[in-house]
Amino acid sequence: MASPSTPVAPERPDSGGPVPADRAARLRARAAAARGSFVTALRPALPAISGYLAARVVNLVVLALMAHAAHKPFWSMVGSWDGKWFRDIADYGYVDKLPVSPAGKPYWVNVEFFPGYPYLVRVVSWVTGLGSLNAGMVVTFASGAVAAWGVYALGRELTKSHRTATLFAVLWGVAPGAMVLTMVYSEALFMAFASWGLLAIVRRQWTAATVLCILAGLTRNTAVALVAALGIAALQVVLAKREDGTRVGLLAPEARRPVVATLLAPLGVLGFLFWVAVIGRRWDAWMWIQDKAFNLRFDFGVSTVQMMNKYLTHLGKPIYVVTTFVIILSVALMIWSFRDRRVPLPVHVYGGLVMVLALTTSNGWFFQSKPRFMLPAFTIVLPLAVLMAKWPRAVAASVVAAGAAFSGWYVGYLVYVVNTNP
């Protein structure tokens, strides 16, 4: 018989002893610790998230006022234009073959739009019972809040300043094209992946960065900028010098994870493009649809410059003059942001490449959409956030409020007055 000092082995789980209770207690403790960690991480970002959501409310108020003035529907407009395509995919899925005219030209077709956002809308609609319009708004608002948190976290990582990071997130949320963050559009979800993905790249958390790059690639083709940022970060590891002066090299153990991450990161974008190629029976099917059906193609920015020159020197719709000045201001912000050497190179690469993609795509019918295309280049507003952090709070708040009203008016004017895609 064991003495009081003799260790007694714990009973087996199937014996009805105390181990299951102990295990349950450990699980509860771990869950409580996880909740505590989540709350601790979230609490500093609450002002940024609150400011972002307040901007969305301002957007909706402005849109409602413009709808009333134009005697047009309000709520349905948040699901208009691209939103109709996303809702169609959420409700019915993709086509199984590409419709082509007798002349061999593709018609407008929903495989132009990446699946991440509409399929998430479908899941939310199935779980909640909401229609695709309302489910889309749930996804947009929730994704935008997560994105604002990610932008804040990246700003805090780069500047070590709570106020600058808060302004960084809110300024992105009131950019001229930000009204689409209050519509059934995919930018908010993409930004949720891109902001946290860029933070993972800066921290060299390779697994998280890979997963977020893949998810971003399933949401928008702009993810190639995030993949490029990851590739640059991996290259920095490969080219880094050890203490003995030798370079790490491509095959070194410390380079293995970043190299593998770079190889896996494009799978989201490439996987969808491959699927479209299969159903379209041509390797460039997605690019072919973009070019021939949606009038979007790479032209080195020639058409952007031509359109800007046209609206600065000829009489035309005032909204396009506004678009031109938004582009000029955005390019100036990008150049200003590049001057900050404290910001890691992958962050500059991401922001710069998003701007290049936005401005070198031929305009066709979408010149007014340039502010929306530039919206994922959130990194370019960081120097402005650093500057505004030194201003009196009332002045900074006034600028932010004006930005929220302007972003609502800009898109509202496009959909209600010009009757075009924002």
Description:
Helix content is 66%, strand content 0%. Residues 1-17 have low confidence and may be disordered. The protein is globular and about 65 Å long. Helix 2 (46-70) runs parallel beside helix 18 (393-418), helix 5 (132-159) packs antiparallel against helix 6 and helix 14 (318-338) runs antiparallel to helix 15. It contains 18 helices and no strands. It is mainly α and 422 residues long.
Return residue spans where pLDDT drops below 50 for at least 5 consecutive residues. 1-17
Give the CA-CA distance, first to last residue: 82 Å
Q: Total number of β-strand segments? A: 0
Largest sheet: none
User: Helical segment tally?
Assistant: 18
Averaged pLDDT: 89
Q: Which short descriptors sum up this protein?
A:
mainly alpha; globular; 422 residues
Question: What's the arrangement of secondary structure elements?
Answer:
Blueprint: H1 19-42, H2 46-70, H3 82-92, H4 116-128, H5 132-159, H6 162-173, H7 187-203, H8 206-217, H9 223-239, H10 253-264, H11 267-280, H12 285-292, H13 302-313, H14 318-338, H15 345-359, H16 370-374, H17 382-388, H18 393-418
Question: Can you give me a brief rundown of this structure?
Answer:
The chain has 422 residues and is an all-alpha fold.
